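Reviewer 2 asked us to include a model.

Predict the structure of this chain.
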Amino acid sequence: MRVVPFEVHVPEAELDELRRRVRATRWPDAETVPGGTQGVPLDVMRDLAGHWADGYSWRRLERRLAGFEQYRAEIDGLHVHFVHARSSRPDATPLIVTHGWPGSFLEFLDVVGPLTHPPDDAPAFHVVVPSLPGYGFSDRPRAPGWGIERIARAWATLMAGLGYDRYGAAGGDWGTSISTLLGLQDRAHVVGLHLTPPLVAPDLTSSDLTETERADLAARQAGTEGSAYSAVHASRSQTLGYGLSDSPTGLAAWIFEKVAAWSDHDGDPFTVLSRDQVLDDVTLYWLTGTVTSSTRLYAESIQTVERWMTTPPRPDEVVRVPVGAAIFRDNPRPSRRWAECRFADVRYWGTPERGGHFPAWEQPRIYVRELRATFRAVLGR
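Predicted model (structure tokens):
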């Protein structure tokens, strides 16, 4: 595996063009009903776009990224970007952490330091944070076949190539699926998983549902209202891509709607994620031209994920490496009883007080606490 150092620097002309396009946005009419039920309200998007054009600094993010060791490795014909942060602790556990959509490796920047350089009584980690194929600074696949199974194999190759014989895996969204597959495909080398949350099917045959299980079933039913994006990604990513690749404001609205809907806040998403944090993520998608390639992962793998969430696992799909879970305020929020049908060795089950679909991004301190709890239980220290 050939690994080369990577630095982020975007030409100023590209940033100027981005600002020009944002300022030239052709705005739609305002929504006809209040409350955001038709999507992101016009006044909210005008405010966000105004900050993007005249207040936001990509160079600020570049300066921060310069403080992280970043690389690109050629794996299975594709160059994969990753952050690699090594701990000075001799007992540190290698850990690969995987993001999903519409996130990126940026979600985990705030947790890298606490995980690599913890207090003496907390577990330490060598942290690897890759960008999914088709996302960020990783290559965009040029042919079908890069689904979650192949990505998991690539992650196993990456960790072996970095010299890590035994490692842990963590993730949310697509990262949950990929980490789960690492536990299946690379069981001999994976010491444990931390999932936020595990993807499991409900037990509809049970006549004694707990309050948590009833709430999860209700949330799954209600969650179908906002699922049209997934169907579009899976079936019409190319058509969608023409608009989102041409209009930065359209791209920002498409991503921000899900960030606002899925994060844990009391009505204002900017109380947990700043405008700059949201725009860092959106700008990464814009500058790398990866919005279309990122959505194609749905065509590759959403049917597998949906089957995991609706159908009991086959015997070969039962994960037998140790698992810890943090059930943040997100959908789904499965019960431990249901999870133990798919994960045979659940060591930790946390229900944090705050945090939604992007817990490391929204609540880095709580995320670190929960991940440490998982690996204390997994490693026995």
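Residues 3-26+39-379 form a domain with the Rossmann fold fold (CATH 3.40.50.1820). Residues 291-310 form the longest helix (20 residues). We have added this to the supplementary material.
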